[in-house]
Amino acid sequence: MTENYEHYITRNIQAVYRRRLIPPALYLIASALLWFLFPLPDILFPAEITSARELQTQYRESFGYVQATLTDLYFTGYTSVRFGRTNGYYYYTVLDGTCVLVLLSPITCEEGLPYIDTQHIRGRIVHQGDSFQALAASLAEDLSWTAQGLKSKVSPYILSEPDLNPILTLVLLILLALSGMYALISLILSMTYILFPVLSPPCRQLGRFGRPSLLLAQAEEELATLPQLATEDMFITEHYFIEIASFGIAIVPIREMIWIYKYSTLHKFFWYHFNISYTLYITLNKHVYIKCPKNIKSDIDGIIDYLAEANHNTLVGFSEENRLKVQELQGTSRLLERIVTLLKRRF
User: Fold this and answer.
1) Model pTM?
2) Tens digit of pLDDT for each residue in 258-298?
3) Please, are residues 262 and 300 in contact by the beta-carbon 8 Å criterion?
4) What angle do CA 172, 37, 26 make, to 5 degrees?
5) What is the pLDDT of residue 99?
């Protein structure tokens, strides 16, 4: 038994955070692939174009997200309709001797200004499609030209502002950046806790009752030498209650406990009842709360009986009387309690 439980708490803390390394690491890898495989850099930093030839080059060599400063934009009189609403207005301008069609958003062109002197836009290059064919035919009719003749004078590439949604793009990039930062911080913290288990949350929580490194060493020694009660994942030593579970670790100084009780949860799917699990709740001094879920009744009952015997000052069982006693012991404000109760009722 001595060999099995040597540094058992430390080894399990490291094991828990090794498992927690996987999700943020996978997310960061997926984010990096998303960044390089999809046009996120092009959307964030679109290329600047100054000529009609660059429209073709950017369309063929990239995803076609560009920005440009255009002058002398004339309204064609035609609009683009999508899902029953006008999403753009067709303008034309001349770039290095070539006529280029530009689709401006309603906000940019103030819903169809006849002439725009200069305008900087960010958009996407769109190759001629059905909309271009219809527009060319209509413009040719207005100008008494043939559609083929008009197409020979107009670039087949349209610069479309509505095809680049800046607000949606910005929101997605912010979400990607924030989630990436969260994943990176989680990864760094997990690696830190693996290298220095005494800095992990279960050990830092011990800092409210003394020096964490000394208390951890004492709990390790007592568990390695003579645990007084042991279940599958819960242990009681002379001075500590210890839970070693796949989802986390709890190290509880028995002398600091003021209230323990169990809570049952019925697991069911529609009308079929699977089983009942029990959660052990432990309240300690200095507003420390421990929750040990997914246990069986016999283990919980044995743990509660033993802890109650080890610390006679511990209140046992959930009741309104015990709750008020704990509130009095911890000096909880009545006003704060009423606010919390009100919030629970509303949300």
Assistant:
1) 0.70
2) 999 988 877 666 666 667 778 899 999 988 888 888 888 88
3) yes
4) 75
5) 83
